[in-house]
Write a structure and sequence with these properties.
Layout (H helix, E strand, L loop, with lengths): L8 E2 L1 E3 L2 E3 L4 E5 L6 E6 L3 H14 L6 H17 L1 H12 L3 H22 L6 E2 L10 E9 L2 E5 L7 H12 L3 E5 L6 H12 L7 E3 L4 H10 L5 E5 L2 H9 L5 E5 L5 E4 L5 H13 L11 E5 L3 H13 L19 H16 L3 E4 L3 E2 L2 E2 L2 E4 L6 H4 L6 E7 L2 H9 L6 E5 L3 H10 L4 E4 L19 E2 L4 H7 L1 E9 L1
Parallel strand pairs: 1-5, 8-9, 8-11, 9-10, 11-12, 13-14, 13-20, 14-19, 18-19, 20-21
Antiparallel strand pairs: 2-3, 4-5, 6-7, 7-23, 12-22, 15-18, 16-17
Helix pairs in contact: 2-4, 2-6, 3-4, 4-5, 5-15, 9-10
This protein binds nicotinamide-adenine-dinucleotide and ligand LB4VBGO6.
């Protein structure tokens, strides 16, 4: 694979200007651990300057059709640079090249859908005249931008999850201040360059890089920001919720996703799907399959198939097209996963595949004989580990799935419509995927969790609901 021609260092993007700072953070190639570029570290004054630039930009009209044009152009430019940007994802995330190309394609689609939604923003007619005494009135609602939106994003899907905030944010008529994850900020910076080229008015998108704990504090303290949209860990999500008062907050947080494989399921198909969705992006996906519940009648055969599919996965250089699983984001994360698996084994779990770490790599790992209180079941692993358990009764498995503080998505393999309907009613998640795993997502669908998995929905149309205010206008004649 060709090396991308990245610059040595990148600046902040504020009010349409790129500003280099003296203080820098390195971005590592997660496979080689070499520095690929440096990013500037924003200070409080930069945060405040970006808020001023964002507010100023709101004073210049930016019509829905203009937003449509800019977002469409950005989507096209992203696709034109697909290979280059995928190459950056390979390096900064350690994501295998096939998946990285897939992420760029999805990101372009997210922007395209956002562009389309920009033309569909509309309010409603409200029949106030039907209330006694209001016969001489008429009312409509208008959707107005919330104003300045701060978007804070995680390391694992650093381009598409940024597009899920910037796309709807701009489409809804807002200005956006983006704070991408420090480990993987380069793709977000390249996206800002693309928006510049696409003709986005100055100040509508600002990018601040640096340590989240510091910049996050400056962002939440700034009272001129109208809304926060955050994707990341529940810990940080709670911090943001706790420090933003009555302002709007959308939170897309973690999960320990479950998938049920019922006795009538396609055993081989579900086992292959579960293996793929447990381990893609080294399990660093919020809807990654972490807990599988298999009906007792098919358990042995399912497990055999899943172990075979898992052992066929190749771990290695993410730039190599034959690689399925690359490095984790950092060695300390691989060590954490290793500790959790070792602890589970010491508590009685059985290793069916994997269980070994080599530096920043952790092998795809299947555990059985698990207990719900083990960390690998109770917590979010965010690594290539899956716990496979059994069940006998429908109500029992629904209870097992719901025995979680999270509730983002779940999967259920069955052709039994009655069970599927019951599961749809009883399973506590934002999305239930029938005949596929928890790991299914297309970018225009409503996506978001219940319980500790967050509040608010993404998918451009749904995110734009969150990023607009519904204003009522009443006319009296
Ligand atoms: N629900 C979803 O759609 C979704 C998608 C992807 C990832 N995630 C979750 O994200 C987590 C993994 O990502 P991560 O490790 O990058 O998460 P993280 O919470 O550590 O970081 C996310 C972002 O928050 C910033 N940040 C850190 N401290 C902050 C603070 N005090 N105030 C404000 N911002 C701060 C970081 O710099 C980063 O940009 C997992 O829990 C995963 O499930 C959820
Ligand atoms: O990590 C969670 C992501 O939202 C999943 S996806 O990449 O959007 O499918």
């Amino acid at each position: 694979m060709n090396n991308v021609l990245l610059k040595n260092s990148y600046g902040l993007f504020i009010g349409g200007q790129w500003t280099e700072k003296n203080e820098k953070l390195p971005v590592l190639n997660k496979y080689s651990q070499e520095v690929i570029a440096e990013i500037s570290v924003a200070e409080e004054s930069d945060v405040n300057a970006s808020v001023e630039a964002a507010k100023k930009a709101l004073n210049t009209p930016f019509s829905p059709y203009e937003r449509f044009e800019v977002l469409t152009k950005a989507s096209e430019l992203l696709l034109e640079q697909k290979e280059t940007i995928a190459n950056v994802l390979v390096q900064e995330v350690g994501k295998p090249i096939g998946e990285s190309i897939g992420e760029v394609e999805r990101a372009a689609l997210t922007l395209e859908v956002s562009a389309e939604e920009a033309k569909r923003i509309h309010g409603d007619g409200v029949p106030v005249e039907s209330a006694p005494g209001s016969e001489n009135r008429k009312a409509v609602t208008m959707k107005t931008p919330v104003g300045v939106v701060a978007a804070i994003t995680p390391f694992n899907v650093p381009l598409n999850l940024v597009c899920h905030k910037v796309g709807p944010g701009l489409a809804a008529g807002n200005s956006v201040i983006l704070k991408p994850a420090e480990e993987t900020s380069l793709s977000a910076i390249l996206l800002a360059e693309i928006f510049e080229e696409a003709g986005l008015p100055s100040g509508r998108l600002n990018v601040l890089t640096g340590e989240g704990s510091e910049i996050g504090g400056y962002l939440t303290a700034n009272q001129e920001i109208n809304m926060y949209t955050f994707t990341g860990s529940p810990r940080v999500g709670q911090l943001i919720r706790g420090s933003t008062g009555i302002r709007k907050v959308a939170l897309e947080l973690g999960n320990n996703s479950a998938t049920i494989v019922h006795r009538d399921a396609d055993i081989a198909g579900s086992a292959i799907a579960a293996a793929q969705k447990s381990f893609n992006n080294a399990g660093q996906v919020c809807i990654s399959v972490q807990r599988v519940f298999v009906h007792e009648d098919i358990y042995e055969l399912f497990l055999e198939n899943m172990i075979e599919a898992t052992k066929a996965l190749k771990v290695g250089d993410p730039a190599d097209a034959s690689t399925n699983i690359g490095p984790m984001i950092a060695e300390k994360e691989a060590i954490r996963v290793e500790n959790w698996v070792n602890e589970a084994v010491s508590q009685g779990a059985k290793l069916q595949a994997g269980g070994k770490r080599e530096g920043v790599f952790y092998q795809p790992t299947i555990l059985t004989n698990v207990d719900p209180e083990m960390k690998v079941c109770r917590n979010e692993v965010f690594g290539p580990v899956v716990a496979v358990d059994t069940y006998r009764e429908e109500d029992e498995v629904i209870e097992k799935v719901n025995d979680s503080e999270y509730g983002l998505q779940a999967g259920l393999f069955t052709n039994d419509l009655r069970f599927a309907m019951k599961a749809a009613e009883k399973i506590e998640v934002g999305g239930l995927i029938i005949n596929d795993t928890s790991g299914y997502r297309v970018d225009h669908m409503p996506y978001g969790g219940v319980k500790k998995s967050g509040t608010g929905k993404e998918g451009p149309k749904y995110a734009m609901e969150e990023m607009t205010e519904e204003k009522l206008i009443v006319f009296q004649s």
